[in-house]
Each structure stands twice: as C-alpha cells, then as structure tokens.
Amino acid sequence: MSNLTRITPLRKIASRPLPAGGRSLRIQGLSPATYWSVLLSEFRTVADVGEIPDGEGRSYAVNGRMVAVFRVGEEYHAISDACPHMGASLGAGAVEGHAVSCPWHCWRFDVRNGAWLDAPNSKVKCDSFEVRIADDEIQVCVPDPLPRSTAGPPH
C-alpha cells in the first residue's frame, strides 16, 4: 500500500467525524491535541517529480525535522532521515526494493512504513510520513511538533 494520496480540501477533512464514531480520541490511542495536529498539518513541497532518481533517496528539512524521501518506481515514500541506531542519514543509504540500508552499520528499514527489517518484531522503527504529488511537486506531511509543557509533573 502506497502512502501516496490525493489532495483533500480542508473543508472535507474538517467535516469528517471523530474516530470511533465520536467516542473519546484516546480509544484510538491519540490525544485530541495529537489528532488535530496530524489532521491540520500541511503538506510541504520538497522536490519536483523526477528530481529523485528511481531507487534512491534524498534528505530534506520539513517542518523542523529531517525527512528522507525515496523513489521506488513511480511511488514516493518518506521516513525519518536519522537511523535510530546512531543517527546516520538514511537518505544517503542504498535502496534495494522497498528497503534502505543505513550507510554506517547496514541496518535496513522499509521505506513504506519505517519498520526495521532486520528485526521485524522489534519496537525499533523510523517514523513514516504521508506523501502526495500535487502539480508535479513531491509533498510531505510532517505533523507540527506538539507544544512542550513547561510545567512540572502533575501533583
């Protein structure tokens, strides 16, 4: 399944019901702030279609994060650029099929969903991001970072 999407006007998104038929968002594992942050995040243009050669990746700063964008055939995929092992740029890694290898220690990740291919049952993974093509531009949606609380722990 590709994470390539069609453009959806904001008015259609805003009129969608809340997850789980309007029940608490926590049922879906998302706080209301996280749900709306993802829902209202904007797509950012990172490159023109064709700029990334087939079977390669490139790294881009998107909404305060480094993101690796890969082209596999006619599909584009985006995951966190930093390898969770030691922080190497995955955008510089070798791509084989839907797998990218970390250039430092050869850890392999699925460019479609960020899963660690060398240990599929592990909780280690890279974040993955939605990608779309609009007017021959590759666009990536990276949610706004949630505001950090300056207050201490609850009493």
Descriptive overview:
With 155 residues, the protein is mainly beta. The chain has a single domain, classed as Rieske [2Fe-2S] iron-sulphur domain (Rieske Iron-sulfur Protein). The chain is built from 2 helices and 10 strands, in the order βααβββββββββ. It has helices spanning 10-14, 32-39, and strands at 4-5, 43-48, 56-62, 65-72, 75-80, 94-96, 99-101, 108-110, 128-134, 137-141. Strands 1, 2, 3, 4, 5, 9 and 10 form a 7-stranded mixed β-sheet that branches. It has a 3-stranded antiparallel β-sheet with strand order 6-7-8, with no helix packed on it. The longest helix has 8 residues, at 32-39. It is globular, with a radius of gyration of 17 Å. Mean pLDDT is 80; it is low at 4-29.
In short:
The protein has one domain: Rieske [2Fe-2S] iron-sulphur domain (Rieske Iron-sulfur Protein, 3-layer Sandwich).
- By helix and strand content, what is the structural category? mainly beta
Largest sheet: 7 strands, mixed
- Name the beta content range: 25-35%
Number of domains: 1
First-to-last CA distance: 45 Å
Please, how many helices?
2
How confident overall, as mean pLDDT?
80
Helical proportion, percent range: under 10%
Give the low-pLDDT segments.
4-29
Q: Based on CA inertia axes, which overall geometry fits?
A: globular
Please tell me how large the radius of gyration is: 17 Å
The CATH level-2 architecture is identified as 3-layer Sandwich
Q: Using DSSP, what is the number of strands?
A: 10
CATH topology: Rieske Iron-sulfur Protein
CATH superfamily: Rieske [2Fe-2S] iron-sulphur domain
Question: Can you write the helix and strand succession as a string?
Answer: EHHEEEEEEEEE
CATH class reads: Mainly Beta
